[in-house]
């Protein structure tokens, strides 16, 4: 997880996000990248920051030559819980269960990111099996 101090300017935070992604990819080169598709929320200021961070992630994906899996929140819930309208607590519990964690991941953003990763892996496995003819 890449965390940036909220006290910094947006441009500095986006730069730190990019640097953090590069560092993590150097340690653990990704085979796939999954990002959650955005929907319009009520808090436009927060949504705007998320869109900009998402742009950094999409740029980073392109630089790695990876086409990211863009997954709707309902698809993430379906992949993790088997139910596209699952509640946040259900998703967190299933993430913990699937990953063998003793308790639900925190903060909520970390649990959400892990759920998106699980959904991306699920989609990736499905795509590979289709290509192999299974």
TrEMBL record:
Gene3D superfamilies: Ribonuclease H-like superfamily/Ribonuclease H. GO terms for molecular function: crossover junction DNA endonuclease activity; DNA binding; metal ion binding. Pfam families: RuvC (PF02075). GO terms for biological process: DNA recombination; DNA repair. Its EC number is 3.1.22.4. Keywords: Cytoplasm, DNA damage, DNA recombination, DNA repair, DNA-binding, Endonuclease, Hydrolase, Magnesium, Metal-binding, Nuclease. The keyword Oxidoreductase does not apply. Signal peptide: none annotated. HAMAP family: RuvC. This is Crossover junction endodeoxyribonuclease RuvC. It comes from bioreactor metagenome.
């Amino acid at each position: 997880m890449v965390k940036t101090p909220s006290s910094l300017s947006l441009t500095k935070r986006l730069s730190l996000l990019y640097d953090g992604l590069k560092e993590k990819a150097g340690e653990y080169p990704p085979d796939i990248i999954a990002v959650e598709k955005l929907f319009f929320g009520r808090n436009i200021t927060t949504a705007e920051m998320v869109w900009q961070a998402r742009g950094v992630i999409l740029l980073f994906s392109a630089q790695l030559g990876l086409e990211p899996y863009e997954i709707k929140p309902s698809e993430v819930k379906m992949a993790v819980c088997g139910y596209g309208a699952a509640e946040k607590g259900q998703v967190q519990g299933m993430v913990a269960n699937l990953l063998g964690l003793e308790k639900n991941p925190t903060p909520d953003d970390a649990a959400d990111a892990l759920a998106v990763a699980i959904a991306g892996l699920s989609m990736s496995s499905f795509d590979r099996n289709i290509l192999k003819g299974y």
